[in-house]
Amino acid sequence: MLYYILRRLLSLLPSLFIMSVLVFSFIHLIPGDPAVILLGDQASPAQVAELKVSLGLDQPIYVQYLKWAAAVLHGDFGKSVFFSQPVAEVIAGRTETSVCIAVLSFMLVLLIGIPIGIVSAAKYNSKLDQFFSGMSMFLASVPTFWLGLNLMTLFSVQFKLLPSSGFPSILQSGDLTNLRYLILPCLTLAAPNSALIIRLTRASMLDVFKEDYVRTARAKGLHELKVVMLHVFRNSLIAVVSALGFTFVGLVAGTVVTETVFSLPGVGRLVVESVLRRDYPVIQAIILFIALLYMLINLLVDISYAWLDPRIRHG
Length: 315
Description:
14 helices, 76% helix, MetI-like fold, mainly alpha, globular
Protein backbone atom coordinates (compact mmCIF):
# COMPACT_ATOMS: atom_id res chain seq x y z
CA MET A 1 0.00 0.00 0.00
CA LEU A 2 2.84 2.40 0.88
CA TYR A 3 4.47 1.77 -2.50
CA TYR A 4 1.14 2.46 -4.23
CA ILE A 5 0.70 5.76 -2.36
CA LEU A 6 4.24 6.91 -3.18
CA ARG A 7 3.79 5.96 -6.82
CA ARG A 8 0.53 7.87 -7.01
CA LEU A 9 2.05 10.93 -5.33
CA LEU A 10 4.91 10.93 -7.85
CA SER A 11 2.39 10.62 -10.68
CA LEU A 12 0.85 13.92 -9.53
CA LEU A 13 3.97 15.84 -10.57
CA PRO A 14 3.52 15.60 -14.38
CA SER A 15 -0.21 16.23 -13.96
CA LEU A 16 0.47 19.38 -11.96
CA PHE A 17 3.03 20.52 -14.53
CA ILE A 18 0.53 20.14 -17.39
CA MET A 19 -2.16 21.83 -15.31
CA SER A 20 0.13 24.75 -14.48
CA VAL A 21 0.97 25.28 -18.15
CA LEU A 22 -2.70 25.21 -19.15
CA VAL A 23 -3.77 27.50 -16.32
CA PHE A 24 -1.02 30.02 -17.01
CA SER A 25 -1.69 30.02 -20.75
CA PHE A 26 -5.48 30.30 -20.55
CA ILE A 27 -5.41 33.00 -17.86
CA HIS A 28 -3.20 35.18 -20.06
CA LEU A 29 -5.64 34.75 -22.95
CA ILE A 30 -8.38 36.54 -20.99
CA PRO A 31 -9.20 39.82 -22.78
CA GLY A 32 -8.06 42.92 -20.95
CA ASP A 33 -4.83 44.39 -19.66
CA PRO A 34 -4.14 44.43 -15.90
CA ALA A 35 -2.07 47.60 -16.28
CA VAL A 36 -4.93 49.45 -18.00
CA ILE A 37 -7.44 48.23 -15.41
CA LEU A 38 -5.22 49.39 -12.53
CA LEU A 39 -4.39 52.78 -13.99
CA GLY A 40 -7.77 53.48 -15.60
CA ASP A 41 -8.72 54.54 -19.10
CA GLN A 42 -7.19 57.98 -18.65
CA ALA A 43 -3.65 56.62 -18.23
CA SER A 44 -1.14 57.47 -20.94
CA PRO A 45 0.55 54.73 -23.03
CA ALA A 46 3.85 55.56 -21.32
CA GLN A 47 2.35 54.99 -17.88
CA VAL A 48 0.81 51.68 -19.00
CA ALA A 49 4.11 50.55 -20.50
CA GLU A 50 5.99 51.49 -17.32
CA LEU A 51 3.58 49.52 -15.14
CA LYS A 52 3.83 46.50 -17.45
CA VAL A 53 7.59 46.53 -17.03
CA SER A 54 7.29 46.70 -13.25
CA LEU A 55 4.81 43.80 -13.27
CA GLY A 56 6.88 41.76 -15.71
CA LEU A 57 4.05 41.65 -18.26
CA ASP A 58 6.26 43.02 -21.02
CA GLN A 59 8.23 39.77 -21.26
CA PRO A 60 7.32 36.80 -23.52
CA ILE A 61 4.73 34.51 -21.97
CA TYR A 62 7.11 31.55 -21.72
CA VAL A 63 9.58 33.69 -19.76
CA GLN A 64 6.78 34.78 -17.44
CA TYR A 65 5.76 31.15 -16.94
CA LEU A 66 9.28 29.94 -16.14
CA LYS A 67 9.75 32.68 -13.56
CA TRP A 68 6.34 31.99 -12.02
CA ALA A 69 6.87 28.20 -11.95
CA ALA A 70 10.31 28.56 -10.36
CA ALA A 71 8.83 30.81 -7.67
CA VAL A 72 5.93 28.41 -7.02
CA LEU A 73 8.37 25.56 -6.45
CA HIS A 74 9.82 27.66 -3.62
CA GLY A 75 6.37 28.38 -2.18
CA ASP A 76 6.11 31.87 -3.66
CA PHE A 77 2.92 32.39 -5.69
CA GLY A 78 3.81 35.92 -6.61
CA LYS A 79 2.35 39.27 -5.70
CA SER A 80 -1.24 40.29 -6.28
CA VAL A 81 -1.51 42.92 -8.99
CA PHE A 82 -4.50 44.61 -7.32
CA PHE A 83 -3.75 44.25 -3.60
CA SER A 84 0.05 44.64 -3.90
CA GLN A 85 0.40 41.85 -1.34
CA PRO A 86 1.75 38.30 -1.57
CA VAL A 87 -0.85 36.02 -3.15
CA ALA A 88 -0.61 33.58 -0.23
CA GLU A 89 -1.63 36.33 2.20
CA VAL A 90 -4.52 37.48 0.01
CA ILE A 91 -5.90 33.94 -0.28
CA ALA A 92 -5.30 33.15 3.41
CA GLY A 93 -7.45 36.14 4.37
CA ARG A 94 -10.38 34.61 2.48
CA THR A 95 -9.85 30.96 3.36
CA GLU A 96 -11.86 30.82 6.60
CA THR A 97 -15.18 31.59 4.92
CA SER A 98 -14.73 29.13 2.05
CA VAL A 99 -13.50 26.31 4.31
CA CYS A 100 -16.46 26.77 6.67
CA ILE A 101 -18.93 26.77 3.77
CA ALA A 102 -17.40 23.70 2.11
CA VAL A 103 -17.16 21.65 5.32
CA LEU A 104 -20.62 22.55 6.63
CA SER A 105 -22.18 21.99 3.20
CA PHE A 106 -20.47 18.59 2.97
CA MET A 107 -21.87 17.65 6.38
CA LEU A 108 -25.34 18.62 5.17
CA VAL A 109 -24.86 16.51 2.05
CA LEU A 110 -23.98 13.52 4.22
CA LEU A 111 -26.86 14.09 6.64
CA ILE A 112 -29.42 14.62 3.89
CA GLY A 113 -28.23 12.55 0.94
CA ILE A 114 -27.25 9.22 2.46
CA PRO A 115 -30.19 8.66 4.91
CA ILE A 116 -32.78 9.65 2.31
CA GLY A 117 -31.06 7.49 -0.31
CA ILE A 118 -31.13 4.50 2.07
CA VAL A 119 -34.82 4.99 2.90
CA SER A 120 -35.70 5.50 -0.74
CA ALA A 121 -33.96 2.26 -1.75
CA ALA A 122 -35.43 0.28 1.17
CA LYS A 123 -38.94 1.54 0.29
CA TYR A 124 -38.47 1.07 -3.45
CA ASN A 125 -41.46 2.05 -5.61
CA SER A 126 -43.48 3.23 -2.63
CA LYS A 127 -45.06 6.67 -2.36
CA LEU A 128 -42.20 7.71 -0.09
CA ASP A 129 -39.66 6.59 -2.70
CA GLN A 130 -41.51 8.49 -5.42
CA PHE A 131 -41.62 11.61 -3.24
CA PHE A 132 -37.88 11.48 -2.51
CA SER A 133 -37.08 10.77 -6.17
CA GLY A 134 -39.15 13.73 -7.30
CA MET A 135 -37.60 15.96 -4.66
CA SER A 136 -34.07 14.97 -5.68
CA MET A 137 -34.80 15.62 -9.35
CA PHE A 138 -36.18 19.05 -8.46
CA LEU A 139 -33.17 19.98 -6.31
CA ALA A 140 -30.75 18.75 -8.98
CA SER A 141 -32.39 20.94 -11.64
CA VAL A 142 -32.70 24.15 -9.61
CA PRO A 143 -30.01 26.77 -10.40
CA THR A 144 -27.89 27.59 -7.37
CA PHE A 145 -28.26 31.36 -7.69
CA TRP A 146 -32.06 31.06 -8.00
CA LEU A 147 -32.31 28.90 -4.91
CA GLY A 148 -30.02 31.22 -2.97
CA LEU A 149 -32.00 34.34 -3.88
CA ASN A 150 -35.31 32.70 -2.95
CA LEU A 151 -34.00 31.43 0.38
CA MET A 152 -32.68 34.92 1.07
CA THR A 153 -36.05 36.48 0.21
CA LEU A 154 -37.96 34.01 2.36
CA PHE A 155 -35.84 33.70 5.50
CA SER A 156 -34.06 37.07 5.52
CA VAL A 157 -36.49 39.56 3.98
CA GLN A 158 -39.92 38.17 4.88
CA PHE A 159 -39.38 36.25 8.13
CA LYS A 160 -36.16 38.05 9.18
CA LEU A 161 -34.82 34.87 10.77
CA LEU A 162 -31.36 34.73 9.22
CA PRO A 163 -28.84 37.28 7.92
CA SER A 164 -28.75 37.69 4.16
CA SER A 165 -25.09 38.53 3.59
CA GLY A 166 -21.67 38.90 5.12
CA PHE A 167 -19.76 36.68 7.54
CA PRO A 168 -17.93 38.07 10.61
CA SER A 169 -14.78 36.05 11.22
CA ILE A 170 -15.05 33.38 13.91
CA LEU A 171 -11.28 33.16 14.27
CA GLN A 172 -11.03 36.85 15.12
CA SER A 173 -14.15 37.17 17.27
CA GLY A 174 -14.34 33.66 18.74
CA ASP A 175 -18.12 33.87 18.41
CA LEU A 176 -19.56 30.61 17.05
CA THR A 177 -22.99 32.22 16.65
CA ASN A 178 -21.56 33.84 13.52
CA LEU A 179 -22.19 30.49 11.83
CA ARG A 180 -25.79 31.61 11.40
CA TYR A 181 -24.53 33.76 8.52
CA LEU A 182 -23.61 30.56 6.67
CA ILE A 183 -26.88 28.64 7.11
CA LEU A 184 -28.50 29.92 3.92
CA PRO A 185 -25.32 29.69 1.79
CA CYS A 186 -24.70 26.12 2.98
CA LEU A 187 -28.29 25.07 2.26
CA THR A 188 -28.00 26.64 -1.17
CA LEU A 189 -24.78 24.81 -1.93
CA ALA A 190 -25.77 21.48 -0.35
CA ALA A 191 -29.20 21.10 -1.98
CA PRO A 192 -28.16 20.10 -5.54
CA ASN A 193 -25.25 18.00 -4.28
CA SER A 194 -27.54 16.17 -1.83
CA ALA A 195 -29.80 15.30 -4.75
CA LEU A 196 -26.88 13.61 -6.50
CA ILE A 197 -25.99 11.55 -3.42
CA ILE A 198 -29.64 10.58 -2.87
CA ARG A 199 -30.01 9.22 -6.38
CA LEU A 200 -26.61 7.52 -6.41
CA THR A 201 -27.12 5.87 -3.00
CA ARG A 202 -30.55 4.66 -4.07
CA ALA A 203 -29.32 3.29 -7.41
CA SER A 204 -26.29 1.56 -5.88
CA MET A 205 -28.36 -0.07 -3.15
CA LEU A 206 -31.01 -1.26 -5.61
CA ASP A 207 -28.29 -3.07 -7.57
CA VAL A 208 -27.05 -4.77 -4.39
CA PHE A 209 -30.57 -5.77 -3.39
CA LYS A 210 -30.58 -8.12 -6.40
CA GLU A 211 -27.58 -10.11 -5.17
CA ASP A 212 -27.95 -13.69 -3.96
CA TYR A 213 -26.37 -13.07 -0.56
CA VAL A 214 -29.11 -10.54 0.23
CA ARG A 215 -31.81 -13.10 -0.50
CA THR A 216 -29.88 -15.61 1.61
CA ALA A 217 -29.69 -13.19 4.53
CA ARG A 218 -33.44 -12.63 4.37
CA ALA A 219 -34.10 -16.36 4.08
CA LYS A 220 -32.14 -16.90 7.31
CA GLY A 221 -34.57 -14.56 9.07
CA LEU A 222 -32.15 -11.66 9.55
CA HIS A 223 -33.91 -8.43 10.52
CA GLU A 224 -34.57 -6.19 7.53
CA LEU A 225 -32.66 -3.28 9.10
CA LYS A 226 -29.54 -5.46 9.42
CA VAL A 227 -29.98 -6.66 5.85
CA VAL A 228 -30.19 -3.08 4.59
CA MET A 229 -27.33 -1.64 6.64
CA LEU A 230 -24.87 -4.55 6.95
CA HIS A 231 -25.30 -6.26 3.61
CA VAL A 232 -26.78 -3.76 1.16
CA PHE A 233 -25.56 -0.32 2.18
CA ARG A 234 -22.09 -1.50 3.16
CA ASN A 235 -21.56 -3.17 -0.21
CA SER A 236 -22.76 -0.13 -2.13
CA LEU A 237 -20.38 2.26 -0.38
CA ILE A 238 -17.67 2.25 -3.07
CA ALA A 239 -19.84 4.08 -5.58
CA VAL A 240 -21.11 6.46 -2.89
CA VAL A 241 -17.62 7.26 -1.56
CA SER A 242 -16.40 7.97 -5.10
CA ALA A 243 -19.21 10.46 -5.58
CA LEU A 244 -18.61 12.04 -2.17
CA GLY A 245 -14.97 12.71 -3.01
CA PHE A 246 -15.82 14.56 -6.19
CA THR A 247 -18.74 16.25 -4.41
CA PHE A 248 -16.40 17.85 -1.87
CA VAL A 249 -14.24 19.31 -4.63
CA GLY A 250 -17.42 20.49 -6.32
CA LEU A 251 -18.47 22.22 -3.11
CA VAL A 252 -15.14 24.04 -2.94
CA ALA A 253 -15.48 25.16 -6.56
CA GLY A 254 -19.20 25.90 -6.08
CA THR A 255 -18.48 28.60 -3.53
CA VAL A 256 -17.87 30.96 -6.47
CA VAL A 257 -21.60 31.39 -7.12
CA THR A 258 -22.75 31.08 -3.50
CA GLU A 259 -20.29 33.61 -2.11
CA THR A 260 -21.18 36.06 -4.87
CA VAL A 261 -24.94 35.75 -4.22
CA PHE A 262 -24.57 36.16 -0.44
CA SER A 263 -21.69 38.70 -0.59
CA LEU A 264 -19.38 36.50 1.47
CA PRO A 265 -15.66 37.33 1.82
CA GLY A 266 -14.40 33.96 0.59
CA VAL A 267 -12.05 32.51 -1.99
CA GLY A 268 -14.89 31.96 -4.47
CA ARG A 269 -15.80 35.62 -4.53
CA LEU A 270 -12.10 36.44 -4.73
CA VAL A 271 -11.92 34.44 -7.96
CA VAL A 272 -14.70 36.51 -9.52
CA GLU A 273 -13.12 39.77 -8.39
CA SER A 274 -9.69 38.69 -9.61
CA VAL A 275 -11.03 37.78 -13.05
CA LEU A 276 -12.65 41.20 -13.37
CA ARG A 277 -9.41 42.88 -12.26
CA ARG A 278 -7.21 40.59 -14.40
CA ASP A 279 -5.24 39.74 -11.26
CA TYR A 280 -3.36 36.86 -12.89
CA PRO A 281 -1.27 35.64 -9.92
CA VAL A 282 -4.32 35.22 -7.66
CA ILE A 283 -6.36 33.36 -10.29
CA GLN A 284 -3.47 31.05 -11.13
CA ALA A 285 -2.81 30.17 -7.49
CA ILE A 286 -6.47 29.41 -6.70
CA ILE A 287 -7.02 27.23 -9.77
CA LEU A 288 -3.78 25.38 -9.14
CA PHE A 289 -4.85 24.74 -5.53
CA ILE A 290 -8.23 23.38 -6.61
CA ALA A 291 -6.55 21.09 -9.14
CA LEU A 292 -4.17 19.79 -6.45
CA LEU A 293 -7.09 19.29 -4.06
CA TYR A 294 -8.95 17.31 -6.72
CA MET A 295 -5.95 15.04 -7.28
CA LEU A 296 -5.37 14.43 -3.57
CA ILE A 297 -9.02 13.64 -2.89
CA ASN A 298 -9.03 11.27 -5.86
CA LEU A 299 -6.02 9.53 -4.28
CA LEU A 300 -7.77 9.29 -0.89
CA VAL A 301 -10.86 7.82 -2.54
CA ASP A 302 -8.77 5.17 -4.30
CA ILE A 303 -7.02 4.29 -1.04
CA SER A 304 -10.38 3.98 0.76
CA TYR A 305 -11.48 1.26 -1.68
CA ALA A 306 -9.15 -1.25 -0.01
CA TRP A 307 -10.67 -0.44 3.38
CA LEU A 308 -14.25 -0.69 2.10
CA ASP A 309 -13.66 -3.89 0.13
CA PRO A 310 -10.94 -6.28 1.44
CA ARG A 311 -10.83 -7.97 -1.97
CA ILE A 312 -9.24 -4.84 -3.46
CA ARG A 313 -5.48 -4.68 -3.17
CA HIS A 314 -3.27 -1.87 -4.39
CA GLY A 315 0.16 -2.77 -5.58
